[in-house]
Amino acid sequence: MTPLHLSRLTFDDRDPRTARDLASPYALHQTLRWAFPGAGVEGAPLPDGERLLWRREDRATLLVQSLTVPDWEALNARHPGSLRGREVKAVDLTGALTPGRALRFRLRANVTVRRLDERGRSRRHALRGPHEQLLWLERQGGQHGFDLLAADIAHSGTVRTRKGAQTLTLHTVTFGGLIEVSDGAALLAAVRGGLGHAKALGCGLLSLAPAGGAP
């Protein structure tokens, strides 16, 4: 199994152009694509099989997960000085996700369900209450190889971003807590592919760590 590549990037948010990217999940994702050959031009595909996931950790720090090795120097070459720091490590979870093992996790997700509107059309609706949000996470575990043991909601709110002339509105929730592995293969697939929707907008990255560590 190809290892995952985890990058921790620190941006220079004093730079106006970088600050604009940080303020827009869509623009930020487009910028990150420059680290993958041929994918920087809008509309160009990522490398075959790639699932680029990322999560903003604080004002200027991003955690990025990719299946192929990123070239962050290419991003810096496009806009010199945009990055103040970068750390990249390869992680192989094969064999580590054994059933019954407890793990700490962190996840920022677009928490939605599909419901019929008054015209009978299927629409995606945001789940805004903590009880519904935690039930959503529990259902994700049932579908993706883990049992939810404990979870806190660190943040819940609405994000708006522009994609050309279109305004995209997301309701995102940041969870943290403890899970137990029930199906290692299914959980590994969820880590590699992400959970929920809006994966190109900073959602879906499921970070795991030993129960005594920080995800």
Would you write up a description of this structure?
The protein is α+β, with helices and mostly antiparallel strands and 215 residues long. The protein has five helices and ten strands. The strands form three sheets. A four-stranded antiparallel beta sheet has the order 2-3-1-4, with helices on one face. A four-stranded antiparallel beta sheet has the order 8-9-5-10. The chain is globular, with a radius of gyration of 18 Å. The model has no long low-confidence stretch (mean pLDDT 92).
How many individual β-strands? Answer: 10
Order of helices and strands: EHHEEHEEEEHEEHE
Described by the principal axes of the CA atoms, the overall outline is globular
Structural class: alpha+beta
- The number of distinct helices, counting runs of at least 4 residues, comes to 5
Distance between the termini: 21 Å
Mean pLDDT equals 92
The largest sheet is:
4 strands, antiparallel
| Structural Rg | 18 Å
Ranges where pLDDT stays below 50 over 5 or more residues in a row are none
Please report which band the strand proportion falls in: under 5%, 5-15%, 15-25%, 25-35%, 35-45% or over 45%: 35-45%
Q: Helix fraction? A: 10-25%
Major sheet: arrangement of strands? 2-3-1-4
Give the SSE map.
Elements: E1 4-11, H1 16-22, H2 25-32, E2 53-56, E3 61-66, H3 72-78, E4 83-91, E5 102-110, E6 112-116, E7 122-126, H4 130-144, E8 146-163, E9 166-181, H5 184-193, E10 206-210
Antiparallel strand pairs: 1-3, 1-4, 2-3, 5-9, 5-10, 6-7, 8-9
Output the keywords.
10 strands, four-stranded antiparallel β-sheet, 215 residues, alpha+beta, globular
